[in-house]
Amino acid sequence: MYRGINEFKGYHPKNNIVKDEQHDLVTDSHSISVRWRNRFSQLFNVHGVSDVRQTEMHTEEPIVPEPSALEVEMATEKLKRYKSLDTGQIPVEIVRQG
């Protein structure tokens, strides 16, 4: 019944097709999984790199600046009364008074 409804509605499942290393189309599931395994192996495994040095990591300043006191005050005023915040279940009234 499910198949008949889908055929009536015009639904046709997509075929899984990928290209292999020689750019030929591969359609069977085993060959597709082998292709993906090889592709991710090439991407994530580094072979033959002899000069791998520990590089110094530089962190950037945050893109978003710290909120001002006025912005915090405006945000707390918009909070609904008699509700609790998700973190720690602190009531909004305590946050407003703080």
Model description:
It is built from four helices and two strands, in the order αββααα. Strand 1 and strand 2 form a beta hairpin. With 98 residues, it is mostly helical. The protein has a two-stranded antiparallel sheet. Among the domains are: 14-46, no CATH class; 67-98, no CATH class.
Could you outline the blueprint of secondary structure elements for this entry?
Blueprint: H1 2-9, E1 18-19, E2 25-26, H2 29-44, H3 69-77, H4 92-97
Antiparallel strand pairs: 1-2
Distance between the termini: 62 Å
Proportion in helices:
25-40%
The portion of residues forming beta strands comes to under 5%
Strand arrangement, major sheet: 1-2
Shape: flat
Which stretches of 5+ consecutive residues score pLDDT under 50? none
- Gyration radius, rounded: 28 Å
Q: What's the number of extended β-strand segments?
A: 2
Order of helices and strands: HEEHHH
Mean pLDDT, to the nearest integer, reads 76
Number of helices: 4
Structural class of the helices, strands and pairings? mainly alpha
**Biggest β-sheet: count, sense, barrel?**
2 strands, antiparallel
Brief write-up:
With 98 residues, the chain is mainly α.
